Amino acid sequence: MRLGQHQDRRVLRTVLQAGVALIFLFPFYWAIVLSVAPKSRVFTLPPDLVPGWDFHPWERVFQAAPWGLYFLHSVIITGSTILLVLITGASAGYALSLPTFRGREIIFGIFLAALMVPPEAILIPDYVVAYHLHILNSLRGQVLPFAVNVFAIFIFRQFFKTLPKELWDAAQLDGASWWRYLWNMALPLSKPAVATVSLLTFSSQWSQFQWPLIITQGQAARPIEVALSYFQGFDGTHWRELAAASLLTLTPIIIVFLFTQRYFVVSVAGRVDDREPSSPMTPVNR
Amino acid sequence: MQENLNPTWDRPASLTRSKAVARTLIRTRKGATGWLLVLPALAILTLFTYGPALLVVAMSFYHWSLGGFQDSQWVGALHYRELFNPVSGFLESLSVTFYYVGIMVPMTIALGLGIAWLFRGGAHKPTPWVTFTRAAVFLPYITPAIATSIIWVFIFNPQFGLANAVLRLFHLPALGWLVSSTWALPAVMINNLWHNLGFTVVLFLAGLSNIPGDAVEAAWLDGANGWQTFRYVILPYLSPVTLMVVILTTIQAMQAFGSIYAMTGGQFGGGGGPLNSTTTTAIYLYKSAFIFFHYGYGAAVSVVLFALLLLMTIVQKQVGERYTSYQ
Amino acid sequence: MKNKNRKSLFALALVSGATLAGCGTTAAAATHNSPAHSNGKTIVTFWESHSAANQQGQALAQVVSKFNQSHPGIKVEVHVTPASAKALAAVQAGDPPIMAMIGHQPQYGYEQANALVNLKPFINGPNGFPSQQLHQIWPAVWQAEFTPSHQQYLFPVDIKVAEFFYNATLWKKAGLSTPPTTWSQLMADAQQIQSKTGAIGLGARLDHNDWLPLFYSNGGHYYKPGHPGQLDLNSPAMAQTIRQVTARDNAPYTKILSYNTSFEDFASGKLGILENTADGYEMVREQVGGKFPVGVFSPPPGSTGHSDYLYQGLSFVIFKHASTAQQQAAWSFIKYFDSPQGQAIWSTVGGEPPMSQADVASVEKMAGSQFSANPGPYAGTAVAIRELESGHVIHKIIGPNQSEIDTVIQNQIQSVVQHKETVSQALSNMQKQATAYLSGAAVQ
């Protein structure tokens, strides 16, 4: 009898888990259904939940705007940001892990202070800075402010600290420069850190909205999120097309997530153990 | 003598000189390399974080013009006086923000902990089912809020949306949602809960997995019931995570922008409607500076937001630490 | 040693630089919102905000392609952008387009930034409009293109006047035959539709515009006549307006809709009458997709005995930073767009009324025999033309603080609707708050 109760509980738990997963996945599913719904089936009560496989909305979406261009902008912005975050993060993280680096306590404190500044609060002065650097309405303007992530620095610092001291001694004996030690030995051993930083930067940068909304004006440097938002504004009456356009924006990140979801989750969870002060950078989607 | 210790480092003669260089570098380094390595990060942070954090305070005392200080007009505390003039709408935006934060934080903790509890265990040898369901919960968090919010606009359509279909199913009256000044903010909350819960769940799952099994077992053996075990064994273990979730959710909620913008027609005048019912301080700040182009006034809003966030974080930490036990 | 450090720094800088250059190459080519030439053609970048997927966007695309074909030296490039706000940011960043379509209200920001070309020399110049043609532009539309200090930066394109759409099938089912001619009849009709068919009687919009025509048709004014700068909101006309709006919004047969979802609600066949503007007619018809005929009628008259139709819309502007050749090319496009030929396409494909009495004939010709059918494919345009011909069209330009004052009025009216205030409280509050804005006591 006890066993039966136990079984019942397990079934109940599985059902509840399925229910929760369903709730979280449902909006994505509904977007797919809407984007391929025949016109007559969009406005039905209760809502029609079976896809109708009518691809006209997709055709119309692709006619409505140069999505390829916007997509390319987003790819370039995200790609170069990841690269720069890796470079700045690895080099600064390496410096902070060096026992011979005298200023490292001070620098560490300075980096910590950056985490205390909420991005929303410096939105306006950042715009002023971007104006004076002549990077408004450019791809560069969407990369540079995000080229450093203090979390990336901390992740690399933690990682380099765990590398065996013998490795460093051997490198010194061999007469290798810090640069070669970092590039040829430390970095290849830090693939998990590189992966974590890349994934976190990818997801936050692909989801970037407010900053590009503010600094881009024409379509010259417009990323896909801003384009999507304008499409919603000017064509908010066409549900099927809107659903298609939002799926266009969602697809790349969902694909990346499908292949890397375990690392993603570990990357986020890893922050609990850091015991570093919480970061305003953490909310990826603003 | 030191050559060829590591065969992979064997390089052609052209590199010998740079090796010699490197050796000198190591011998003479007194932290110079360190400074050099942190320089790019420091430079960019100075430009886009430290500098602006100071600039925003200065800007708030000016009728700011993009040309810089020489084109701007000193107005003293004028902007701050305006903030507290009820007509300016800033105080209203603060009360909307506190309403939003006040609901979001407890809801995030309750639902996050509940879902984490439902998905607990199995982390060591994840079955495909565990992997799949957890990924499903986490997925919204990494997607662009602007894209998913569009889907939520459909869901909250008063006529054909799913939200009202569900209400009708339970014979409840249908709501206006985004066209109602009462229900627009709750609609935004539901969207953002859905979007951000995955993050909290992951944090709580990590917290739960840190609880040693024998601590729970000992409690059971001592005759504690389910609630007592939860209250006196599990909750104390989770207190550091909970404190972190409180702080992060507050920070997140105070700065929510994209979802509100997308759900309340931001493309037409910046969003925040109907009737300012979703004008949080973040939306108010955006509109001041980038719809009405009052940069100086917007800077004053930013400074107050900055101070509030700092204050809330400190208070939460102070109060929280008192009830937090680090095992 | 210093030298080596510099070398390492150089290496780092090189890597970062290369990355930036990678994104820089596209950026550098694209940063300029207004390239001057391409293949020997003068390029005119034109920011406008009609989606390429809807009727106005398609009409515009047709006019642009006809223009580009007939003007081999010019290429107009349309970029769909929320120009009213974004072009001003682009001006501040020193990188505006050549021309744009912006609203009336935003022009003050542009004027302050000294960003717009004064159009008078173009209008009166050799390639301009003869004065008898200018006289035929709808008077209210033409007046709206001037600032209070009589500067002209705007030239009309996109003319929206208020209209009501009705579902002719539901209408017939409810036993109605002629459109209502008074507000009380409109309310009674909406009630009858709801009780006879079960559909919602009237869908009203929640925005700044629906109270204003009522206010004017009740004899109201923003300012005391003869006292410019002195607001006159605490008036019997406003009191009556508030009562009308309150009665309408709180009626069981009225539903408040947001602009975007109102089209779908109407297309579902579950809404009898929809409050809208002329440009929405084509969009509504497209959404309905022939499921039922859609009729149009004008807002009924107020206590003055006539209706007042609010004109809003977007206008062409040319930016000062453009070269002389670009300015001239942009002007030729404006002239082409506002020629009878361009207006015929704009009105029949885009569903908006033409900008001048002189264009009506060519619109009718292109539309053919169905022009005056109501319900019919051009009913929205035909009714809008009649409204414009009546002369009772108002434009809402009173000055730079317009949107703040409108927000105050709108919020006070809503407070009464929601039973938070009495009518007289709302009247005195809106007068007080709006005056505070006007005097500059409040920034926003």
From TrEMBL, chain A:
Cell compartments where the protein resides: Cell membrane
Pfam families membership: BPD_transp_1
Top-level taxon: Bacteria
Record domain ABC transmembrane type-1: where: 71-260
Cleavable signal peptide: none
Topological category with respect to the lipid bilayer: Multi-pass membrane protein
GO cellular component, one term: plasma membrane
One GO BP annotation of this record: transmembrane transport
InterPro entries named in the record: MetI-like (IPR000515), MetI-like_sf (IPR035906)
Chain ranges passing through the membrane: 12-32, 67-94, 106-130, 142-160, 181-202, 242-265
Keywords: Cell membrane, Membrane, Transmembrane, Transmembrane helix, Transport
PANTHER family recorded: ABC TRANSPORTER PERMEASE PROTEIN MG189-RELATED, ABC TRANSPORTER PERMEASE PROTEIN MG189-RELATED-RELATED
The family this protein is said to belong to: Belongs to the binding-protein-dependent transport system permease family.
Protein name in UniProt: Carbohydrate ABC transporter permease
TrEMBL record, chain B:
Major site of localization recorded for this protein: membrane
Subcellular location, record wording: Cell membrane
Topological category with respect to the lipid bilayer: Multi-pass membrane protein
Gene Ontology cellular component annotations, sorted alphabetically: plasma membrane
Residue span, ABC transmembrane type-1 domain: 94-316
Keyword Ion transport: no
This protein's UniProt keywords: Cell membrane, Membrane, Transmembrane, Transmembrane helix, Transport
GO BP, one annotated term: transmembrane transport
Stretches that traverse the bilayer: 35-62, 98-119, 131-155, 167-186, 193-212, 232-251, 295-315
InterPro entries to which the protein is assigned, alphabetical: ABC_transporter_permease, MetI-like, MetI-like_sf
Family: Belongs to the binding-protein-dependent transport system permease family.
Protein name per Swiss-Prot or TrEMBL: ABC transmembrane type-1 domain-containing protein
Species, as recorded: Sulfobacillus benefaciens
From TrEMBL, chain C:
Domain of life, per lineage: Bacteria
Keyword tags: Signal
Annotated signal sequence range: 1-21
Alphabetical list of InterPro entries matching this protein: Bact_solute-bd_prot1 (IPR050490), SBP (IPR006059)
Name this protein carries in UniProt: ABC transporter substrate-binding protein
